[in-house]
């Protein structure tokens, strides 16, 4: 699937243990007087890295893996990757054609709605259907009741979503961390690749 001009890797990858996400952000520690130290952050958002394992079974899946990796041209071509985590939770069911989502309060407006395109794109994953739908968050509001926040989405909801079985994951724009990825073959019809990706929030489009 293509979303906002880039391919989406809709692969619920294999997890072994916890997700290891490393965050680095360039900053300068100021030569401040005695007391609390001050830091000058030189980037508007961090660019975390995350590894994941991709297992492919059979020739069609192996071909899909190799085609995707070849299309990245090393670190050159970005792609979208859902976090596959329950980053936000619906506070109420969503009807088809709804222009907004009501989510449980997590300080999205105050702490996540920044000046970059990061955290402005989400994947809604219906566990009952097993498919992904991708949306841009064009606006958000917090009524201040610490119960719910409201997200305006584009396009409007393409289907109904039940709060109890819908996962909302942030859709992250990423690049491969390395120009080459090793693909191993434990057997003739099984391929395995450990892939490290880097999120590039400053390149994600702002809706």
Can you put this structure into words, describing what you see?
With 207 residues, this protein is mostly beta strands. The chain is 10% helix and 38% strand. It has one domain (2-203). The protein has helices at residues 58-72, 108-112; strands at 2-3, 6-7, 27-29, 39-41, 49-57, 79-82, 100-104, 121-126, 131-141, 148-154, 166-176, 183-187, 190-199. Strands 5, 6, 7, 8, 9, 10, 11, 12 and 13 form a nine-stranded antiparallel beta sheet that branches. A two-stranded antiparallel ribbon has the order 1-2. It has a two-stranded antiparallel sheet with strand order 3-4. A hairpin with a 6-residue loop joins strand 9 and strand 10.
List the helices and strands and how they pair.
Blueprint: E1 2-3, E2 6-7, E3 27-29, E4 39-41, E5 49-57, H1 58-72, E6 79-82, E7 100-104, H2 108-112, E8 121-126, E9 131-141, E10 148-154, E11 166-176, E12 183-187, E13 190-199
Antiparallel strand pairs: 1-2, 3-4, 5-13, 6-11, 7-10, 8-9, 8-11, 9-10, 11-13, 12-13
């Amino acid at each position: 699937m293509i979303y906002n001009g880039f391919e989406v890797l809709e692969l619920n990858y294999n997890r072994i243990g916890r997700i290891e996400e490393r965050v680095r952000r360039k900053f300068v520690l100021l030569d401040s007087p005695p007391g609390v130290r001050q830091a000058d952050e030189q980037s508007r958002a961090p660019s975390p890295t995350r590894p994941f394992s991709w297992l492919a079974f059979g020739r069609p899946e192996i071909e899909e893996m190799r085609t995707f990796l070849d299309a990245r041209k090393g670190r050159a071509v970005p792609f979208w990757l859902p976090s596959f985590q329950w980053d936000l939770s619906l506070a109420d069911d969503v009807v088809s054609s709804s222009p907004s989502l009501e989510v449980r309060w997590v300080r999205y407006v105050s702490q996540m709605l920044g000046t970059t395109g990061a955290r402005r794109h989400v994947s809604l994953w219906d566990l009952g259907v097993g498919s992904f739908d991708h949306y841009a968050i064009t606006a958000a509001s917090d009524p201040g009741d610490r119960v719910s926040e409201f997200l305006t989405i584009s396009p409007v909801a393409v289907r109904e979503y039940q709060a109890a079985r819908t996962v909302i994951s942030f859709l992250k724009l990423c690049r491969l961390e390395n120009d080459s990825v090793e693909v191993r073959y434990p057997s003739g019809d099984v391929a395995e690749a450990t892939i490290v990706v880097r999120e590039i929030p400053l390149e994600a489009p702002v809706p």
